[in-house]
Design a protein that fits this description.
Length: 362
């Protein structure tokens, strides 16, 4: 049985939001389109997409925003333009930046810009990490929160100091805000306050929002218009963006309104995990509605346990697993969404106990 089929048969699923089949998703989209009189855009021109772009810009406190088919395209385009504007081709990025870890060296192979790693890969940035760089930076790319270290955030005062430092150096400050909705909730501040001081920001329309895909890039109107032209030049000019925009827009307000509930549920999960010291949490306390759990077993054994729990108890604990730094250890990311929010407290505790017990068996 394939993992996807096995997960569908489970009644207790820990990660993320409830997965909808294509039929369910498309039916919901069709009903929403009918209720709201939605028509297709044509190459990005249409009332739905333009109103949604304006909504994102207002929420973040920017002049404008534009849809992009992927965050990968949006981010390197923004950073390349920023470097060109300043005549400096060097970008500072955290060692765990998505650009380094997941984008197959696109910035380097396609000649977008040059990049250097700044700071310690196991903690968020401090202003001293950037101050230690003597080079003339064209741009700084900052991810909020840092996914690869469990959704950690720089302290608010540190974030403000970083904004001031980058501004003082005349560099462009870009936000990788794939999970900005979660970061703002973690900070307990409105989106525009978190985004203030950034020159541009990318946000995802599918990660926390639950859409089909796509992204938005926000900034000044002039910057966004130039970026949109480069999206077209790079093959991002799909004729209809409406499926992606509908899938996000129809649930956008509901998802953002639920972020405080997801964060509260994350606090509850941390308390439940305290009863199982063999499972290590990162970060030590919730900073957003996501975390990494470090296990005392190899990835291969972790996958065996996942299958056992799924087949015998209908419990699906995680999706992807990664090797740990130490031998015979592993870790996985857990995003706290609708699944954990709807799960009864006792079922959550019982499922964790079964998982912890299985980890102890050799």
């Amino acid at each position: 049985m394939l993992d996807q089929e096995l997960q569908r048969r489970c009644h207790t699923v820990f990660p993320g939001h409830r997965a909808r089949t294509p039929a369910e998703m498309f039916a919901a989209m069709a009903a929403w389109c009918a209720s709201n009189g939605v028509e297709h855009d044509v190459y990005g021109a249409g009332s739905l997409i333009q109103e949604f772009e304006a909504k994102i810009a207002r929420l973040l406190g920017f002049e404008a925003a534009v849809f992009c088919i992927s965050g990968t395209m949006a981010q390197v385009t923004a950073l390349r333009l920023a470097c060109r504007d300043r005549g400096r081709d060097l970008v500072a990025l955290h060692p765990t930046s998505h650009i380094f870890v997941h984008e197959r060296s696109n910035y380097q192979l396609l000649g977008h810009f040059k990049a250097l790693q700044a700071g310690d890969r196991h903690r968020p940035w401090q202003v001293a990490d950037l101050a230690a760089i003597p080079d003339r930076l064209g741009a700084v790319g900052m991810e909020l929160p840092l996914r690869e270290i469990g959704g950690q955030l720089s302290d608010w005062e540190e974030l403000e100091a970083i904004k001031a430092h980058v501004r003082g150096r005349g560099a462009h400050l870009h936000m990788d805000g794939a999970r900005l909705w979660e970061a703002a909730c973690g900070y307990g501040r409105p989106l525009h306050e978190v985004a203030a001081g950034f020159d541009s920001a990318y946000v995802s329309l599918y990660k926390g929002v639950g859409g089909l895909g796509g992204a938005m890039l926000a900034g000044t109107r002039e910057f966004v218009e130039r970026a949109a032209e480069w999206f077209r030049r790079q093959g991002g000019n799909v004729i209809h963006r409406s499926p992606y925009v509908v899938a996000a827009a129809m649930q956008f307000d509901e998802r953002l309104a639920a972020m405080p509930d997801y964060l509260r549920r994350t606090h509850f999960l941390y308390e439940a995990l305290a009863a199982h010291p063999g499972i290590k949490r990162n970060p030590a306390a919730p900073q957003a509605n996501m975390l990494h759990l470090h296990l005392p077993v190899s990835p291969e054994r972790a996958l065996e346990i996942r299958r056992e729990l799924a087949e015998q108890h209908g419990i699906w604990m995680f999706n992807r697993i990664a090797s740990g730094v130490l031998p015979d250890t592993s870790s996985f990311e857990l995003y706290v969404g609708d699944n954990l929010l709807a799960m009864p407290d006792e079922r959550l505790r019982t499922s964790l106990a079964l998982f912890a017990d299985a980890l102890l068996r050799q």
